[in-house]
Design a protein that fits this description.
mainly alpha, 115 residues
């Protein structure tokens, strides 16, 4: 089972694909990860292999215009949200600033640059 999971990881498979290949459910896998350190490490290593697969695929095709990098990007974001998920920062600021612009001076400088 470990060999199948690791090989699928090397091929870039998702964890759900790995579970399906060894005929277990997501909930069973979660339970086994908690109860069995060897299974948890196997899944962690397979996930690392999978992430490496997608990263290497993207790097190898950086200049390939026919390569659909958007699909690879979505695969990375979907399978590895901790590393590639959207980082959202909400920031609100009220800023008041008085600005004085000397338009005659600015226009004169632009005219000088155009000469």
């Amino acid at each position: 089972m470990a060999q199948i999971i690791l090989e699928l990881g090397r091929q870039g498979a998702s964890q759900k694909s790995m579970y399906a290949a060894v005929n277990i459910s997501k909930s069973t896998a979660a339970k086994w990860k908690e109860e069995n350190p060897k299974f948890a490490e196997t899944m962690s290593m397979a996930t690392t292999y999978g992430q490496s697969y997608w990263e290497n695929l993207m790097l190898a095709n950086v200049e390939n215009k026919a390569f659909n990098s958007r699909i690879a990007e979505l695969a990375l974001k979907g399978q590895y949200p901790d590393d590639y998920g959207q980082q959202r920062i909400d920031l609100k600021a009220n800023v008041k600033q008085e600005v004085t612009i000397d338009f005659d001076k600015e226009i004169a400088e632009l005219m000088q640059m155009l000469k």
